[in-house]
Every structure is written in C-alpha cells, then in structure tokens.
Amino acid sequence: MTRAKQPTSRDVAALAGVSVATVSYVMNGRTDRRIPAETRDRVLEAARQLAYAPNRSARSLRRRRTEQVCLVVGSIGVPAYDQLAADVHVRADEAGYGVITVVVDSPDRAEKTVGLLHQRIADGVIIAPDVPYLTENSLGGLARSGLPMVVMSNTAVPDGFDVVRAPETAACAEALDHLVGSGRRRIAYMGHEHEFSDSPLSSERLAAYLAALERHGMSRDDDIIVSGADDRVAAYHAATALLNAPDRPDAIFAASGRGAISAIWAARDASLTVPDDVAILGCGNLPESLITQPTLSTVGPPAADDFTEVARLLFDRIAAGVPSKGHEVTEPWIYNRRAST
Amino acid sequence: MTRAKQPTSRDVAALAGVSVATVSYVMNGRTDRRIPAETRDRVLEAARQLAYAPNRSARSLRRRRTEQVCLVVGSIGVPAYDQLAADVHVRADEAGYGVITVVVDSPDRAEKTVGLLHQRIADGVIIAPDVPYLTENSLGGLARSGLPMVVMSNTAVPDGFDVVRAPETAACAEALDHLVGSGRRRIAYMGHEHEFSDSPLSSERLAAYLAALERHGMSRDDDIIVSGADDRVAAYHAATALLNAPDRPDAIFAASGRGAISAIWAARDASLTVPDDVAILGCGNLPESLITQPTLSTVGPPAADDFTEVARLLFDRIAAGVPSKGHEVTEPWIYNRRAST
DNA sequence: CTGTTAGCGCTTTCAG
DNA sequence: CTGAAAGCGCTAACAG
C-alpha cells in the first residue's frame, strides 16, 4: 500500500480548469464573490473526485486562527468536568470550533500546557475549577499575549481574562452551621487527594470546615479528616473506616458528590441510619443526589451543574476579537438541604 | 488594551543577531547541528525576552504533521470512555502529542467529523466502541487517505486501519446461560437509548439477550426490555419500575455497569434481596462492582478497563509512517461471576 | 558553524 | 466574474 499524497487546491484547480483562488472561494461557499453555478459545480465535482479537503494547518496559518478551543481540566472522570466538557463541546460545535482537551495534573504538565497555548494551538481556552499547578502568573502571561481565556477560580482576579467564581465558602459555612445547630458534635471531612499533598492549591472546602470547627469551639481531629472524595471506591472505603471506628463521627462532610454518595452506601452497609446515626453532606449537585436513600444534601449550585454560560463567555470573547480587562461572573452556590442532613 | 502582535522567529533572529534558521534549530534543540552555547544562549534569551513561542500552525504546515491525535467518542461521561480518554492522554503526552476530543452523537456530527479528519486536523484517530453513525464507508475513506486509525468495533474489518474487538457475544451468552441454568425464568434487559431508536448501530448485547431467550425457549416480553443504561438516574427509575411491576422479573441484565449498579440500589430500596429475589448482571468492569452489596457480576474484561494497548496501537501506526493492511486485536471479555447472580 | 532560500497549502487583496 | 501573486511563520536543504 502506498500512501496517496493528499490532493491540494492546486490539484482541484487544475482538474476543474480554474485558478486556486476560485477553488478557495467555492470551498468556503463565500457569497461575497459571485460565482456562476456552472463554475462552482465543476469545482465541487473535481473536489469530490479527488476527495479533496482543504488542509487545516495551512488555513490556520493564513487566517491566523485555528478554530479550536482548549479545555484544561485537572483530571478525567469527574462529573463536574464531564458536564463542563459536554457544555463546551455543544457550544463549540455551534460555533464551528473543535475542542482540544488537556489534562493538567502535574507541574510539568502545567508548564507544557502553557507553552502549547502560547504556540496558539487554540483560539481560546477555558480553565476548569481546581486545576492545580497553573500559576496566576502564567495565566496572566497568556492573557497578555492576547489569548481569549476564561478561568474558573475563586482566587484568580480578572486580568485580561474572565473569571467565573462560585461562593463556596459561604455555602459551606451555612451547611456546617446547620449540622452543628442540629446537634452534630463530631463531623468528619472527606477531601480530595490533592488537599493532602503539598499542592499549591488551597482548599476552600477544607478551610470552611476548619473555620466551622473553630467557630463552634470544636477541636480538630485529624483522625476524621481523610481523603477519598476523588473516587467512589476510595470514598466507600474511607467512609466505612470512619463509621467503623470506635469513636464514630455523627456527620460526614464530603468534598464531592461522589464521595457523599459512597458514604451513604457505606453507612447503609454498616447498618447505620442516615441521617439519624450519621448525617451526610456532599458538594456539587449530581442528579444522583435525588435518588439516594435518603436524598443527599449538598453544598453546590441550586440546580444541576450547567456550564453553558462559561462556554458562552469564551466564545463572546473570541468573537469580540479585542482583549478586554475581563469580567467577573459569580455562579450561585447554596446549601441544598435534602434528607441526609 | 491593544493586542500585542505575536513575535515570530524573525523577531527573535533580529534581536539575537542570528538568522531564522538558527532560531529554529535552537528552539527545537536539535543536536544534528552543532551550535555553540554562546549563540544558543543569546537566542534563548531573545526568545524569553519577547515571550516567543513558535507558531503551531506554521510548524504543522511545514512539517506536515500536527502532533495531535483525535479521539472520537459517542458521548461524554461514560466510564469506559473516560478510561479510554485517560489512557490516550497519557500515551499522547509521552509521545509529545495533544488530544482533540470529538463527540459524535448524530449523523450530522459524524459527517462533520469525517470532514475534519480529512482536513488533517490530527495525525491519527481512535474511534471508541459504539460510536454511532460512523459508516464503515467513511472510515475506509479516511484510512485510504493515509490517516492512521484504530477502530474499536466488533463489526468493522481491518482495511488500512487496526481494529480492536471484544467478544461480547460469547461472554453474554455464558452469563445468560448461567442465569437460566440457576433457575431464572424472567430476565429483563436494560439497554442504551440508542438501541431503541432507529440508529444504524446494532446492539450485540441485546442480540445476545434475545438469542438466549430463544435458545432456552423463553418468550420475549417487550415490557421488560427497557432503556436506562446510559445514565444512573434513568437506570434507577427503570429498575424501580421493573421491580415494582406485578410480574416482576427475577433477573436484570443491564447493558452497562452503571445501569446494573443503579439496579442493585433500586432492588435494595424496594426491599428485595439480590440475588435471591432478583439477580443483577452488568456489562463492563467498573471498580465499583466490588463495593456494591452484593458485589456485581458482569460481562466484561477480566480486570478493570485498560486501553493503553489501544493507544499504543495508534502511536505505533503513526510512528511507522507507512500505512499497512491493519491488525486485528481481540481484548478478552468474560463472565465475571460475583455475588449478584 | 551559520545564513539564504524555497517552499508547506491556503486565503485574499489587487488587477484585469 | 476570474486569475496572479503575495505572503502567513516555520523548517530543512543547500551553499558558504
């Protein structure tokens, strides 16, 4: 088998007996240039015959845009990221854009990614929440280079890019106060792995938890501050361990929805009643929260995650063409009290 | 704010007092050209000063490769796709490639995607299992155009691309025979949405189910052939409906792992015992299968999903450069009997 | 050891 | 209405 050389617009032009300019106009279906149907059909037929498709790199080089956006996430398989990815894909598709996904889960990846973005691998970028190792510094540099960017973060401040925030702290505080107010005296925290490493990422949820302990004169007990929220299986094991300990907590605050759902299962499997024996509180707002027994209380958006607005911000910015100082958008986060607390 | 024009290699060359060729060699760290440290440092310093990064489109055009691979999936948020995406990202990263993800969930998207691939948006492509609407015809066309490709499918036949298969039918048959052999007389099927539309995609799992009914002289009852396997919430509701019906099934075969797990929950919430009252069988091999009560029997790979081999196939093919007829690789699928059947 | 130069394939003025 | 020609920014011969 020999690799057939890809046909170029020149080949099509030759076959159709026109110039490459005409081929370009026809292929792009441009209306600002009046082309007789006869000519157009001849070009189209030649293109079909040769299975011609305009080369994307060449077009990008010439038009100075790639028609790709880049979505930067911290890992794969997190429901909120999946929803974000889905929403971005839909919007991108509408705008005729493709989506390049990059996973940043190490300082090395973070650095490489910033490099790629500088190389104009995409016309815009969305940084998902809690992507570690991306410094404000490098983000600022990217924005300054003219790359449209929307950053989901509670700490970043708009600086040539848009920032989307979620007021986690207030919502966590409200939920934790409610837990204490309803008599919980030993509240466990199940966090993400990276909260327990020496990641540069500070955890708003853990901070809110610790602040609540302080506020209510409760002492911190590292035995019931555990990881596991990243992953259903780990969460199940972590919750099981917590609930089988001699000094069992009477509430578990999980930093994810999946963690909380696994905790409900762990409690049931340990023959404990939720919320009587142990209250369970999660983060986010997974659709599943409504089908658990009991239904899961969470701190999160009032309805299911929806990131279409975030995608819209990016495409508006791309369309605008000219960099602006940057908006700051706040998505609501509240205490969704249901039956598990 | 004015958008700073991106610096080019010419700018760097001028600042460093060298030619663009030297800049190129330095930036690519090429060892086949001996460049004195002094010159190199000057170039690097100039690049740093201008925040120069080589333009990706130009490089792709010139080198005739994009250093991107494309992953085509049917939807977002399916655990098996997530695992595939994760494995592809890891391999790609090692190979210095990026990953463009495209979601094909309509005939329209399928067509557009084939078009993009023809435009050489990527140097290779992996088609995930069960991506609908992609015809063998268009895949063949892509392969013939010289695009390295690995297709996960049980029906496609290698034709300039590699095919990765999973012998689902045999494994399903074994599991279903076991269900019948252990006395199950009314087995429900919970499938994917697309099995109930007029999608061109035939379902091997549904076919295996129907064949098993036939084989054992059981009659098909469309009341217990339902959808819901795509989504945990839908599955929970579907299973609940099934289990509360007057003529309750004594087994549920779900075409996904998530569907089966939701079915276990639904059974427990309906105060039924698994497997005594109802056996539950899933597909795939989610890690969660081991933490459900009882543990979940599945038809699927013997261990957790692992697609690194698939990614390897693609990168081998890309590295080879020359198109070959195509390998056919079969991943094992078996009946993983655990406690739920 | 380094610079000059010819494109990669396309889009888009600008002339005809 | 159509074609010629000038690049987009980079890489890789090739010549010095």
Provide structural commentary.
The structure is a homodimer of 341-residue chains. The first copy, chain A, is α/β, with parallel strands linked by helices and 341 residues long. Chain A folds into three domains: 9-53, no CATH class; 66-166 and 304-332, Rossmann fold (3-Layer(aba) Sandwich); 169-300, 3-Layer(aba) Sandwich (Rossmann fold). Helix content of chain A is 41%, strand content 15%. Chain A contains twelve helices and twelve strands. A six-stranded parallel β-sheet of chain A has the order 2-1-3-4-5-11, sandwiched between helices. A six-stranded mixed β-sheet of chain A has the order 7-6-8-9-10-12, sandwiched between helices. In chain A, helix 1 (9-16) crosses helix 2 (20-27), helix 1 (9-16) crosses helix 3 (37-50) and helix 10 (232-244) crosses helix 11. The longest helix of chain A is centred in the N-terminal third of the chain and has 16 residues, at 79-94. The first copy, chain A, starts with 8 loop residues before the first helix and ends in a 5-residue tail after the last strand. The interface between A and B is large, with 62 and 62 residues. Chain A binds a DNA duplex (16 and 16 nucleotides) through helix 2 and helix 4.
